[in-house]
Amino acid sequence: MATDGNGNPLQRTSDMEGMSAADRARMYKERAAAAGLGRAPSAAEANGGAPAPPAARPAPEAAAARNARSGETARPASAAPAGTDGAGAGARTAESGAGALTPEQRQRLTAAVQRGGAGGAPAPAAAGGTAAAAASSPAAEQQQRLVYVWPHLVTIEFMASVLALLSMIVIGLVLQSPLEGHANPDRTPNPSKAPWYFLNLQELLLHMHPALAGVIVPSAALALIATIPYIDRNTRDVGKWFGTPKSAPIAWFTTWYTTVVLIALIFFDEWVGVKPLMKRIADATGITFLNSTFMTDIFIPTALMMAPMFILALLVQRIYKPDGARDWMVCLFTGFFVVFIVLTIVGTFFRGQGMHLYWPWDPRMTRIE
Fold it and tell me: Which residues share a beta bridge with 357?
């Protein structure tokens, strides 16, 4: 390989064909460093003098004698075998561009090029190293953790919808669920229940004012759920069921606490009742306001809903000491979910004639048309 007429080591030569851009840039950088390009000016240059002239190119006879003393033989560039590796190409490049360098610079350039091309096949090795570095970088790890809406989420949701539709078709064909007769305004079934997904609200209607049970409480619950992303703004471990070390114990404690307290309140209203209790207190004290609709249907039910929530927060803070908003959101959402499930189960399997509590096998669970 030959350089330009001035012996410039940064001239692009024919043996660079086939190299990647990164390999060529690395070789140019090594040549420039070895040639002293970009070095600090000498004292003479700093004082305004002319730069030192480049070293004269050694004569071919001197180069041949030096190669003979080192045990090497001269070989023309055309005799190089095809497909030489990066080390040989780099060494020949250093030799071809060494004419404009001092012996020390020529030695540094040769050593740098040999280090860059050692180990045979530099391009694949560099590519492999670059791929490994990219795979281990934080950006690559973040890219691997991302799940895109298309095709990942949309495909799963589509398959789930198809399976759900097929399941409903098969169940409808096998079970042959009969349709009931037309509604008769003169005869109301006992008990008359709402669809299963509204049985939790119907259960609330048995214990408080209709506006409170059917509008205010559901709307407040949905509004609080909608504010969770604005309260818990930490994106770490998003999508995990239990993203913090304390979230699982807090969820289990909240589940058992909410279940026990809710069942106790249902039994209290069934066996004692807020309205009968407040009527007896009003008759005993002579304070008729205690038996008003506001007290029995709004104030007392609201207090019985809010008090267990504050007690739960105090117990969780004392026992588990939540680390941040994520633990508190897990606690509150678990409580809401358990209330939804328990009220639905009670309304479905334990409410019979007159909407009273019965065991599921009690004959009074049978609906009277």
Answer: 351
How many other β-carbons are positioned within 10 Å of the β-carbon of residue 6? Answer: 11
How many CB atoms lie under 10 A from the CB of residue 166?
Answer: 10
8 A C-beta contact, residue 341 and residue 248: no
Residue matched to tokens 């009273």? 356
Q: Using one digit for the tens of pLDDT, what is the confidence trace for 327-349?
A: 999 999 999 999 999 999 999 99
Q: Give the DSSP per-residue string, 30-63.
A: HHHHHHTTTPPP-HHHHTTPPPPPPPPPPPHHHH
**How much is the pTM?**
0.56
Calpha distance 97→113 (Å, rounded)? 12
Greatest Cα pair distance, the chain, in angstroms, is: 129
* Local structure of 190: helix, strand or coil: strand
Q: Do residues 360 and 216 touch, judged by C-beta distance below 8 A? A: no
| Distance in angstroms (rounded) separating the CA atoms of residues 199 and 210 | 14
Q: Are 35 and 10 in contact (CB under 8 A)?
A: yes
Q: How do residues 152-173 score in pLDDT, each as one tens digit?
A: 889 999 999 999 999 999 998 8
Cα–Cα nearest to 251, from 305, 316, 200: 316
Question: Comparing C-alpha atoms, which of 319, 312, 331 is closest to residue 251?
Answer: 331
